[in-house]
Design brief:
single chain, alpha+beta, Aminopeptidase, 8 strands, globular
Length: 184
């Protein structure tokens, strides 16, 4: 994948050498991962690097790192976007997003990055539809997906197990806007 630059972020395929101890530590922070499947594992630096190595496009998923420029010009890895479960016959996949750097929460990086990643997926991966689901009680995820043009498609009753109970999920999706406009 080619590097994508937005106003404040740099998106590029995440490589094992991009994984730092800071990232591995964040994956062990219950507040950071409470809405993700990462919460079911303990993460070492090696395990996080192995996970990244196992998630290349040739292996059925695309793991994109979200980076921001530091004041010194360096790039700081703050989160990830993962496209997975590609259904080639239907030109669709699932997407998930996580900003693991708490210092960058609430600054709009997730929406900015996801918009650019979705645009890339439609144009370069030739997708028709991108699907996501999130915990209904996680209002922040709902806002991010809504800002990026995803629309609610389903109430997912008892979809997730968290803190000893099942909670509902919300299924959202976005259809390639270039296909919608060409069919009018």
């Amino acid at each position: 994948m080619k590097e994508i630059r937005t106003e404040r972020t740099i998106l590029k395929e995440l490589r094992p050498e991009d994984v730092t101890q800071t990232y591995a530590d964040a994956l062990n922070d219950p507040e950071v991962v409470m809405w993700t499947e990462a919460r079911f594992s303990r993460w070492s630096l090696d395990k996080a690097r192995d996970y990244v190595a196992e998630n290349g496009i040739e292996k059925g998923s695309l793991l994109i790192g979200i980076f921001i420029k530091g004041k010194d010009g360096s790039e700081k890895h703050i989160g990830n976007i993962r496209f997975s479960s590609f259904a080639k016959n239907h030109n669709r996949c699932y997407v998930g997003i996580m900003v693991f750097d708490r210092a960058e929460w609430g600054k709009g990086y997730a929406s900015e990055a996801l918009k650019a990643a979705v645009k890339y997926a439609f144009k370069e991966l030739k997708l028709h539809k991108i699907i996501a689901d999130y915990y209904a009680i996680n209002k922040s995820s709902g806002k991010v997906f809504e800002k990026c043009g995803f629309r609610k498609e389903a109430d997912l009753k008892g979809q997730f197990f968290i803190e000893g109970r099942y909670v509902d999920g919300v299924g959202v999706a976005i259809i390639n806007p270039s296909e919608r406009s060409s069919k009018k």
